[in-house]
């Protein structure tokens, strides 16, 4: 950390000046909020509907302008050598460059703040002029003379650190404030990383809306934060478009979503919806579960063709004409002409429901042609009336009947002959047997649907009626999705783009992604750009080095994460004989500042919960927010993914491995749990450690 050692008369109290600017900026933000709160819309809306809409927009704006007392309003300053955007090239006729304003100071923060004259006091981190704060270097200073980083304690500005990027005599060095911010204790939900975004992360964050980006990142590389900040950036750069089309963040479970839910609101973005894949496909109540073999087959992309065949099998070619009676006239559309209409709609490969809606209009049009030939002059109202004629409706129902997606999937799973007919040449007889329900089910409501069944129903629903597309979707922990789940997500961004985040080494489902190119094909985004983050900012060096021993066994060829942390962290292997010794390890780590997680195989959770209670140590569940008095979270291994704690006690690695259906999945689960610590890890074990750890 550097503060000027020799004060000058011009700048004798730089820290005081920066604190004064912070105080003025907070006052300006309050004034901006008060201006919005004082708006009177009683005379500017035409009706109560408009008034309600405008009122909600004002409420959102007020919330977006909230000043978070424990979050810095700005975290950096750029002193440009020239006014940003100033013309420095010679003109066409060789005239001299325009004069430029020197020493342009811009404060970089979470949101834009301006004074009463409209002049900026804080520049939004997403603005183009803020980009050099993240990307400027000694090799490419980007016209920045000085980059200043600020250190905070709570919301109070307490330190600063300068880099003179355009000074050839000052060497490049690691920022201590940056390291301190990265290593700051984790208490409460996930926070934003706007003060610590690295150049390689910034490139992904600021990539355009038009393309899909897939980020492969090992533990602690910041891929989740990058995905969330990319949403915030896209909302800044394309606000009107995304306001119309919508944005969505998809996480693996509710605990994870609760953990990340405050990141975007802290950046002033309140309109982004969050959901799990199960939320997206909640057409039926999920009350059952598949074994691994059935789930793998149901999640296979081949099931999409089985479902499509089953839907369109309801279409039958007409054998009888349609006779429409209007007044004293009878109009006859022959069967061969009806067959041509049906075949044409099938050849167009449009949604089943859209084709069904189009067919009566086609029949009505054929009737109108006959009317015109007979000398009548029918209009659109006549065509609509013919399309609603009982004879036409009866013909359409016979040829192209309605399909209920849930009933269709239920029949596939319970009717042996129906499944065999539509899975012929796609699924083997053994695979068909694997997914068939053993017992008959009377109705959709009484069925014990599994999560994979709900995805099949979503697929059938989309075959019948197109799923609306959003403008942008962020898919986190994507490596655990099945091909059919990828298709379900892809349907939500067919005309939009996506940010796909994951780590192949952390795939812990039997159907886990084998490679990103294949996964992106299922998503419907085969042309997506694949980026890899390998610099680790969260996991300490000693911890990630130990966990990386598993990589050759779980993801051969994947680049190990290289920790950039100066602090190697705390790491210990500790043999124990009973749960009380595991609790003792937790007590030791709780003496440190920050959060502690006790992670164990799911079957071990009740025993450890009892031991903690006996010791008088309160424990939270994953997703619950830590407090000053309660800083220990008891985490089942199955829910650890995506979470992080300052210190972790990992109980019995072998039990975590053997709890999974196969060794590779178990070792991947272990890799996940080994990499949740930010500052220190204690591994307790009663049984021998897995051989793959090389111990």
From TrEMBL:
<dbReference type="InterPro" id="IPR014016">
    <property type="entry name" value="UvrD-like_ATP-bd"/>
</dbReference>
<dbReference type="InterPro" id="IPR000212">
    <property type="entry name" value="DNA_helicase_UvrD/REP"/>
</dbReference>
<dbReference type="GO" id="GO:0000725">
    <property type="term" value="P:recombinational repair"/>
</dbReference>
<dbReference type="GO" id="GO:0016787">
    <property type="term" value="F:hydrolase activity"/>
</dbReference>
<dbReference type="InterPro" id="IPR027417">
    <property type="entry name" value="P-loop_NTPase"/>
</dbReference>
<dbReference type="GO" id="GO:0005829">
    <property type="term" value="C:cytosol"/>
</dbReference>
<protein>
    <submittedName>
        <fullName>AAA family ATPase</fullName>
    </submittedName>
</protein>
<dbReference type="GO" id="GO:0043138">
    <property type="term" value="F:3'-5' DNA helicase activity"/>
</dbReference>
<dbReference type="GO" id="GO:0005524">
    <property type="term" value="F:ATP binding"/>
</dbReference>
<keyword id="KW-0378">Hydrolase</keyword>
<keyword id="KW-0547">Nucleotide-binding</keyword>
<keyword id="KW-0067">ATP-binding</keyword>
<feature type="region of interest" description="Disordered">
    <location>
        <begin position="1"/>
        <end position="22"/>
    </location>
</feature>
<keyword id="KW-0347">Helicase</keyword>
<feature type="domain" description="UvrD-like helicase ATP-binding">
    <location>
        <begin position="198"/>
        <end position="239"/>
    </location>
</feature>
<dbReference type="GO" id="GO:0003677">
    <property type="term" value="F:DNA binding"/>
</dbReference>
<dbReference type="Pfam" id="PF00580">
    <property type="entry name" value="UvrD-helicase"/>
</dbReference>
């Amino acid at each position: 950390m550097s503060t000027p050692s020799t004060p000058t008369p011009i700048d004798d109290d730089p820290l005081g000046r920066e604190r004064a600017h912070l105080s003025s900026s907070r006052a300006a933000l309050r004034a901006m909020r008060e201006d919005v709160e004082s708006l009177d819309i009683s005379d500017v809306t035409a009706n109560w509907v408009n008034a309600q809409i405008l009122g909600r927009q004002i409420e959102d704006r007020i919330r977006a302008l909230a000043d978070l007392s424990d979050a810095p309003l700005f975290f950096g300053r750029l002193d440009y050598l020239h006014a940003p955007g100033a013309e420095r090239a010679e003109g066409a006729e060789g005239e001299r460059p325009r004069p430029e304003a020197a020493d342009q100071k811009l404060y970089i923060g979470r949101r834009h703040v301006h004074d009463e004259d409209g002049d900026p006091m804080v520049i939004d981190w997403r603005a183009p002029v803020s980009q050099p704060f993240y990307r400027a270097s000694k090799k490419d200073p980007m016209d920045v003379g000085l980059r200043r980083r600020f250190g905070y304690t709570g919301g109070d500005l307490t330190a600063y650190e300068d880099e003179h990027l355009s000074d050839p005599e000052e060497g490049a060095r690691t920022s201590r404030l940056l390291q301190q911010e990265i290593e700051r204790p984790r208490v409460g939900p996930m926070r934003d990383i706007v003060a610590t975004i690295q150049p390689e992360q910034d490139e992904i964050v600021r990539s355009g809306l038009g393309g899909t980006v897939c980020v492969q990142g090992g533990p602690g590389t910041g891929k989740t934060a990058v995905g969330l900040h990319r949403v915030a950036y896209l909302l800044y750069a394309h606000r009107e478009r995304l306001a119309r089309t919508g944005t969505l963040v998809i996480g693996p479970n509710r605990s994870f979503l609760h953990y990340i839910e405050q990141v975007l609101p802290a950046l002033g973005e309140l309109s982004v919806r969050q959901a799990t894949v199960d939320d997206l496909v909640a057409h039926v109540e999920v009350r059952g579960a598949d074994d691994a073999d059935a789930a793998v087959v149901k999640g296979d992309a081949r099931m999409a063709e089985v479902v499509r065949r089953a839907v369109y099998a309801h279409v039958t070619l007409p054998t009888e004409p349609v006779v429409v009676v209007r007044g004293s006239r009878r109009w006859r559309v022959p069967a061969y002409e009806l067959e041509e209409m049906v075949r044409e709609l099938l050849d167009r490969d449009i949604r089943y429901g859209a084709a069904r809606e189009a067919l009566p209009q086609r029949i009505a049009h054929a009737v109108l042609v006959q009317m015109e030939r007979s000398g009548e002059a029918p209009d659109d109202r006549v065509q609509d009336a013919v399309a609603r004629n009982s004879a036409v409706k009866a013909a359409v129902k016979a040829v192209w009947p309605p399909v209920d997606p849930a009933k269709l999937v239920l029949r596939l799973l319970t009717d042996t002959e129906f499944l065999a007919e539509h899975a012929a040449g796609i699924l083997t007889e053994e695979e068909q047997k694997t997914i068939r329900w053993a017992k008959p089910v009377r109705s959709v409501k009484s069925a014990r649907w599994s999560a994979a069944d709900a995805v099949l129903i979503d697929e059938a629903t989309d075959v019948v009626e197109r799923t609306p597309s959003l403008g942008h979707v962020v898919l986190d922990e994507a490596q655990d999705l099945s091909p059919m789940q990828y298709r379900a997500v892809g349907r939500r961004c067919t005309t939009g783009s996506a940010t796909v985040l994951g780590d192949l080494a952390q795939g812990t489902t039997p159907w886990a992604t084998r490679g990103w190119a294949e996964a992106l094909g299922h998503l419907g985004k085969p042309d997506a750009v694949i980026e890899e983050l390998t610099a680790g900012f969260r996991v300490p060096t000693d911890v990630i080095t130990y966990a990386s021993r598993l990589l050759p066994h779980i993801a051969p060829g994947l680049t190990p994460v290289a920790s950039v942390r100066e602090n190697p962290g705390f790491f210990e292997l500790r043999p124990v004989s009973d749960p009380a010794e595991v609790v003792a390890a937790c007590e030791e780590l709780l003496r440190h500042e920050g959060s502690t997680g006790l992670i164990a195989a799911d079957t071990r959770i009740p025993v450890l919960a009892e031991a903690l209670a006996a010791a008088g140590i309160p424990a939270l569940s994953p997703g619950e927010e830590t407090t000053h008095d309660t800083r220990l979270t008891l985490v089942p291994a199955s829910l650890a993914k995506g979470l992080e704690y300052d210190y972790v006690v990992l109980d019995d690695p072998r039990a975590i491995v053997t709890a999974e259906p196969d060794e590779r999945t178990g070792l991947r689960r272990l890799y996940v749990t080994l990499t949740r610590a930010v500052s220190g890890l204690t591994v307790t074990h009663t049984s021998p450690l897995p051989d793959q750890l090389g111990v």
